[in-house]
Amino acid sequence: MAPPKQTHTGLVVATHGRHVVVESPDGERRICHPRGKKSQAVVGDQVLWSVSTDEGSIESVQPRRNLFYRQDEIRTKSFAANIDQSLILLAAEPEFSERQLTRALIAAEAQGITPLIVLNKSDLTTLFQAAWERLAPYRNMGYTVLGVCLGAAQPTGDADTASAQQAALNGLNERLAGKTTLVLGPSGVGKSTLINHWIPHALASTNEISRALNSGKHTTTSTLWYWVDADKTTALIDSPGFQEFGLHHIEATQLANLMPDLRRHLGNCKYYNCTHLHEPGCGVISSMKNAQSTESISENRYKIYGELFDELSNIRHW
């Protein structure tokens, strides 16, 4: 009988296709391959792996605290596991999509992950103010929304402006410290700038992983883990795929409970199985029509809810 394989613990720090890069507790990284036809390991997973020539084989994935993912009619895209918060980066320009923001927030709520909304380009004063006002309903829901200027190497403008910009960056740093944060955002909002601000060696690390995986330019499609500090207590995870954010893994009847502005009014509905679309005595509809309170549901948010409910109602869940 062959002796049992010796396994080692490790952290998945990069994925590309069926290959993953696993970091050992001593900091050494090596390519590992899954057993079977499909890899189930994602960045942030703790795994057990065994030595296979100069590389390794994933023997098992340890239980997860959470898994942030999206699902559409074609496939499921897993972003990362075992994260503390998701940072959704938006910008004063280009104008952000509230529908995409809502989808990312719902996905986080479904997994019990704390979202952090960051609005970049505060130096574009007029555009920033308009975008900041659009985010008022999200602040009223209880989400943390921070405004920053990531574009310049040093704070710009007069002394007061520069001081405010630096204070904003310090505030963001406090929110990141000691946590594992998944960074999401559409193109053009400054995601690479944010990563490089906190991790100056990020590009070199990416190139190193690229060479290891022999994936060249395609590494940009990978999800990558970066340690921010030498003590390895703070990490940022950079992942693409924000543009198309499917929620097909969520039941339509769960939707209102995953939207804080709707959730606070669910106990005021006349019917226990209210869809909040047309029923008489619906607390959600009543709140939407009463725009006087900060706890009211905005017409746009209610419209997004209706669109998502219709989309998810036409999906077969197995």
Task: Give me some keywords for this one.
318 residues; alpha/beta; five-stranded mixed beta barrel; globular
Account of the protein in words:
The chain is an alpha/beta fold and 318 residues long. It is 29% helix and 25% strand. It is built from nine helices and 13 strands. It has a five-stranded mixed β-barrel with strand order 1-2-3-5-4. It has a two-stranded antiparallel sheet with strand order 6-7. Helix 1 links the parallel strand 8 (85-91) and strand 9 (114-120). The longest helix is centred in the middle third of the chain and has 18 residues, at 159-176. The radius of gyration is 22 Å and the shape is globular. Residues 216-220 have low confidence and may be disordered.
Question: Could you list the spans in which at least 5 consecutive residues all have pLDDT below 50?
Answer: 216-220
The total of helices stands at 9
Outline the biggest β-sheet.
5 strands, mixed, barrel
* Quaternary structure state of the chains depicted: single chain
Instruction: Briefly note the structural class of the backbone.
Output: alpha/beta
- Order of the strands making up the biggest sheet: 1-2-3-5-4
Annotation, overall tally of beta strands: 13
User: What proportion strand?
Assistant: 15-25%
End-to-end separation: 41 Å
Principal-axis shape: globular
The overall average pLDDT, rounded, is: 87
| C-alpha Rg (nearest Å) | 22 Å
Helix content: 25-40%
Order of helices and strands: EEEEEEEEHEHHEHEHHEEHHH
